[in-house]
Amino acid sequence: MSAAGAPEYDPDAEFVYDYQTLRIGGLTFVAVIMILSVLLLASNKIRQCGKPRVSVLISDNGIQR
Question: Membrane-crossing residues (predicted)?
Answer without folding.
Answer: 24-43
